[in-house]
Amino acid sequence: MGNWRLPFSGKGGDEIGGWISFREKIDCLTEEWLIALADAWPTPVLSKLKEPAMASTLTWALEFVHLDRMTCFDKKWWGFHCIVDSAERGYTHERSTVWDPEGQSVIFSQQTTAVFA
């Protein structure tokens, strides 16, 4: 994972990443749960701002590359990493990856975001 900062820290960064898990045990891993994992993270460019501002997804494409419905029966940590490919005039283009607890890529994501600041 890269050197990333918290949103609205004013310290800047084009990456965000870390680990995430489900708060409660889920009985069946579905695409909806995976989308929730991918969508839990803010756009990395919010770390460049010093005050809260709104941001909105304009386009979002998800590719499910591996889905093992048995991996989520125990509470485990999932990996996430997002990098901004370009950012200009309030718009960003980002690429993200979500990994399952065994380190296998599960989702590739491309997103265009507008930041209203």
From TrEMBL:
Pfam families: 4HBT_3C. Residues 7-115 form the Acyl-CoA thioesterase-like C-terminal domain. It comes from the Bacteria. InterPro entries: ACOT8-like_C, Acyl-CoA_hotdog, HotDog_dom_sf. This is Acyl-CoA thioesterase II, putative.
